[in-house]
UniProtKB/TrEMBL annotation:
Disordered: annotated span: 28-56
Gene source species: Kitasatospora phosalacinea
Stretches assigned to the N,N-dimethylformamidase beta subunit-like C-terminal domain: 101-464
Protein name as it appears in the record: N,N-dimethylformamidase beta subunit-like C-terminal domain-containing protein
Pfam families: DMFA2_C
Biased composition (Low complexity): 30-53
Lineage: Bacteria, Bacillati, Actinomycetota, Actinomycetes, Kitasatosporales
InterPro entries: DMFA2_C, TAT_signal
Amino acid sequence: MGATGRRRFLGLAAGAAAGLTACGPGGRPTGAATASGPATATGPGPGPSATAAENARPGDADWRITAAGPDQAIEGWADRVSALPGEQVGLHVSTTAPGYTVTAYRMGWYGGARARRIWRSDRQPGTRQAPFTVDRTTRTVSTAWPRTTTVDTTGWPEGCYLLRLDADGGAGQRYVPLTVRSRSTAGTTVVVNAVTTWQAYNEWGGYNLYNGPTGGLPTRSLQVSFDRPYRYDDGAGLFLVYEAPLVALAEKLGLPLSYTTGIDLAADPGLLHGATAVLSLGHDEYWSPEQRAHVTAARDAGTHLAFLGANCCYRRVRYEPSPTGPDRTVVCWKGAWKDDPGYRAGHPATTDFRSPPGADPESSLLGVLYDGYPVDAPYVVTNADHWLLAGTGARNGDSFPHLVGVEYDRVDPSFPTPKGIETIAHSPVVCEGRHSYADTALYTAASGATVFATGTMRWVESLEATGPAGGTAVHGIDGRAGDFTRRVTENLLRGFAAAQHP
């Protein structure tokens, strides 16, 4: 996406975490052909999972923030984006209140409550921390807030967490996101939190990788730090809009799941060994070369991939340490890559993957290619007999208003495109006067892995759409479209989970 108007689509989904409706049972034919589903062995599907057992526990619907309070009433950040169960995580909190508590909620389905309270702290003394600083060269916003409390994750189930900060007397509330990651992903569908993209868009302190005080590229940050709170969604970053709806649906299905982040995928080349499938969620734009190499290797070993958004794997980044620890700074100089000291020292240019030097368009992995922003268009079905659409009732030519947006991808043979790619939706769009198409597409890799891409950024958001436009609709996407995307996603997840890894 270009620099102009990047903030507009981040005001974001009406009714985030509004609740998913029930999906009917999803059958999927067996066989090796793409038309009938991913390669699989006949026989029973996966047995009971830890995910199902966890979601059988009572949920806690009071996880939502109801009284955020003034901007600086309370806010904080964690000194890790992820932790293994049993590891300690430091919180760095600033508040105008004399004290606060921390409550850890694991996000999932939980009978529709969408979260379960795992832990709550004793009351902690409150401190108003020093103002943030802005690096003069890179315009990086960071804080030097000391650790104010430590969270021990012993006994916590793997998954996506929101740590809610509650200031004394109802003065304010904020979230701090945390992934309690899986040590092994073998035999599971892997949910990948796109924390690097969350941070790229984080405008806390007035700067992100798109905007600075002037509202555009000339004053934007050239690198951004995790040593600051998230501005969007009361500190949750982009999780509630682009990821939580898919997490809820996947956990509702009770399939074997594991959890990690893009940073962890980059750091550990063996993390995806034996994984059944990997899920990239609603907006996963910023990848390191290491993450891309490790996901590609997983595909080539037979692991299925699903890209449930658009504009994925578009920007190439590098990680550097901050005073807090390793991999706490996201470096992306974009068009100014020649001036990046890291590039001059021999690192890859932190610009678009498709751009020189070292051009490697994302379509060679995804099958589709990012094509533009902004659009708002109907989603048009063109292959209604495909196994992914089983049970949707959709026919060729059916359309779902507003489901394509605000960014979109397409199959573009002028770029590297896997052989045998097929489309199940081919939706006309007009992007700033230019006529094009958004494509939902999939292909089968030589390993037998199926790679699926929705071609629209609104796919995960649409999982929340349950009513008529103007009701609980998201971006005008109504319940009919929500029923469609929920069923297709269920077919996809069940099909991937039933596939037997080589």
